[in-house]
Amino acid sequence: MENKLYVGNLPYAAKEEDIKAHFSQAGTVTSVALIIDRASGRAKGFGFVEMSTAEEAQKAISMFNGQDFMGRAITVNVAKPREDKPRNFGDRNRGGGGGGRNRY
């Protein structure tokens, strides 16, 4: 089992320090990454917690999955590796152009 956990349904007001303090009840937290929206600067409501051992990660899942954290029932499970998806560059690759109005 992996040491890295996905934590979902986090309250938007939660800070990395709050999450670390909460998960420290299950063992040693080596890192916390709260995912922030680039455009708004606001938390997206999920993040990742890395525990020092796989046993502590399993304990955190058992203790916290579905439990209340700052007024919300959080989801805690093993983080899956990120899938490499092709990047979406909008309409840039579709060709064409528009324009053409009022030329004559």
Describe the structure in your own words.
The chain has about 100 residues and is α+β, with helices and mostly antiparallel strands. The protein has a single domain, classed as RRM (RNA recognition motif) domain (Alpha-Beta Plaits). It has two helices and six strands, in the order βαββαβββ. The strands form two sheets. It has a four-stranded antiparallel beta sheet with strand order 2-3-1-6. Strands 4-5 form a two-stranded antiparallel ribbon. The mean pLDDT is about 90.
Features:
about 100 residues; about 20% helix; four-stranded antiparallel sheet; alpha+beta; Alpha-Beta Plaits
Strand content: 25-35%
Identify the strand order in the major beta sheet.
Answer: 2-3-1-6
CATH topology category name: Alpha-Beta Plaits
Assign the CATH superfamily.
RRM (RNA recognition motif) domain
| Overall structural domain count | 1
- Reading off the top of the CATH hierarchy, the class is best stated as Alpha Beta
C-alpha geometry: elongated
Task: Walk me through the topology.
Layout: E1 4-8, H1 16-23, E2 29-36, E3 43-51, H2 54-64, E4 68-69, E5 72-73, E6 75-78
Antiparallel strand pairs: 1-3, 1-6, 2-3, 4-5
Task: Summarize the entry for a quick read.
The chain has helices at about 15-25, 55-65, and strands at about 5-10, 30-35, 45-50, 70, 70-75, 75-80. It is α+β, with helices and mostly antiparallel strands. The strands form two sheets. It has a four-stranded antiparallel sheet with strand order 2-3-1-6. Strands 4-5 form a two-stranded antiparallel sheet.
